[in-house]
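Because showing beats explaining, we think one record worth quoting, sequence and backbone structure tokens together, and here it is:
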Amino acid sequence: MQWTLDQLRQFVLTAESGSFSEAARRLGRAQSAVSTAIGLLEADLGVELFDRSRRNAQLTDAGALLLLEARELLRQGQSLEQRALSLSAGGEAKLTLALDEALPDTAVGTLIREIAQRFPDLELTLLNGTATEVAEYVDQQRAQMAIHFVRGALPARFDQRHMGTVSQGLFVPMGHPLTRNETVQRRDLVPYRQLILHADDVHETAYSPKVWRADSFYALARMVAYDLGWAILPVNIATHDSYRQPLQQLDCPSLALPQLSVRVLWCQGWQPGPAANWVQARFTELLR
């Protein structure tokens, strides 16, 4: 078959306008040229698209079915053209982004929705994991860049950029004995098990002689909900509504907990394209 997209456009426009002459007027062509193009299309397809025994351009049954196919092919052709224009302008064809599972849900959800609106032709892959895992995804070249909570210094093979901060706090299950006082001191924490985030080469301070560790903030929060101990958690994780019982934040001024820093990282030598640069800038805004 030797039909062209231009013939399909003339076929669709004629069907939609109901007239060869109206289609020709919209296309800025002679009516005879449009009639000839559709006649060649019919010959190539081996079916009649219009019933020419009628005054207006009336579709045959076969023409009505093929009109649906023609519209879809034109849509795909337009998508191909838009993607090619994006690529020729320096846009990425694909982006694999690794995200720390502990990042605020609201910010991540907004980011993903806006990527879909702003870069509709981008082939996006999202990988999720702990802060350590998403950094490994970049190191293994499974992802171009990762956004995660800072967990110690990065090897020299990475580049990084600070994006913002997230609040953290000291949490126990609702009704825990430590909730009886408005404020607690570090010595008050000592009798109870401390639940600490585990990460290679990062040593968190232990305030209790009894310690359990896990590599996920969500795992720690679930352990707190089961009254297995207390933990320092990102506030967005601790206030999630999926736990066995609500967690309660304690006021412990002597801990002086800092904000958790969030960064984006990538391997040295990689050049972020327009989509990757926009993701970095937009997520920085969302963390504010």
User: Anything to note?
Assistant: The longest strand covers residues 158-166. The mean pLDDT is 89. Residues 61-88 form the longest helix (28 residues).
